[in-house]
Fold:
Amino acid sequence: MSKTATLEIDGKKYDFPLITGTENEVAIDISNLRAATEGVITLDSGFKNTGSCESAITFLDGEKGILRYRGYAIEELAQKVDFLEVAYLLIFGELPTKEQNDKFHDDIRAQSVVDEDVKKILEAFPKTAHPMGIISSLTSALTAFNPSVVNVESDVDMYNSVVKILGKMPVLVAWTMRKKQGLPLDYGDDSIGYVENILKMMFKKPNAEYKQNQIFIDALDKLLILHADHEQNCSTSTVRIVGSAHAGLFASISAGISALWGPLHGGANQAVLEMLQAIEADGGDTKKYMAKAKDKNDPFRLMGFGHRVYKNFDPRAKIIKQAADQVLNDLGIEDPILDIAKSLEKEALEDPYFVERKLYPNVDFYSGIIYRAMGIPTEMFTVMFAIGRLPGWIAQYREMRLRKEPIGRPRQLYTGATLRPFVEVDKR
Ligand code: CMC
Structure:
């Protein structure tokens, strides 16, 4: 017998079905609530208790610190496959065979060219523009250069759009960074791996041969995998809701990039590094900043700490902390910023304020340290996150459209003025 939840309003009872997911999570299906109760809605600011969809892409258990893509543990994926295989897995549901993987990469390579006119748009941005604003605009501009509407029900159409955006995004990212640095806008090398090519496109000097660094390739590959999807986070929900109006894939992703930019979301990786640098410049007194973070009259938050869903530990942060240690070790870099990060982490993990609120380091706490070691400018950190999150956004867009989800349109509880008489301008 199927289970129900009973709600009682003014002595009248209403039954709602309980739905159980494959990991035994339970949801109350309230899709009939308003009709059954004649107008009652639920209110859940920030969607802390509200599922916006059913999804078969990513499983996350915040209490146990579990993250899986399509059933595979993130720890195993980070060890055993590369970013493009993860992208394929997320978008199409299964790990690719060798042939599928080779074809996927070849097709992406074939699409890794951007219309020359895109450079004119890039030229128009001031040097001071933040790279996330530029990337969001350029992703949206791609729609103008690739106007075909994606028919999500056509596997061929969808596949073509996927390889297009995966091919062009790294070019846009590299050009954005190079433009800010006054370097010529060029292409990478289609004979090398996807992640290697990202690094080459970003760092190749016009007058010197680019030498690959395996430590950087491995670290970036891992970071991109760890960022590739995170179920219904702010930017992904944005992509799904924009796409639910049947806006195109690129336009929806552009909106997702804007959401990711926020410092409470992906922008935290830039904010973390700036915070660590500020603490260092201020004499390295971590206790002072711990006190600020706990002071309710001070807007300062310990960036890179806390998570809406993880209330035990962020499994991505565990892997990244190790990777940061290893990268700095392998490169023989002694970074005082890493020491400050470790002190802050230690103090926070022992501090009742952070313990009671279940605030742990999140994925962004250590990622910036790796990006910094690679020579990536701080302003580009969130852009690197966006490259990583791209497969997740695409997978979620595709799933939402294939499930024929209705347009996203939340309700509200109106708390403004009730009807009042109009006042003429001379009487206001
Ligand atoms: N420093 C100090 N106090 C904090 C922090 C922090 N980083 N995060 C949460 N708190 C406190 C908050 O003040 C509140 O205290 P109280 O109950 O006394 O009012 C309590 O903890 C709960 O916080 P919340 O804001 O209600 O929690 P939330 O689930 O709405 O917010 C968060 C989650 C990630 C936005 C928040 O923890 C935060 O702002 N962290 C810093 C920014 C950050 O690192 N973001 C990256 C998230 S991971 C990357 C990604 O996937 O986007």
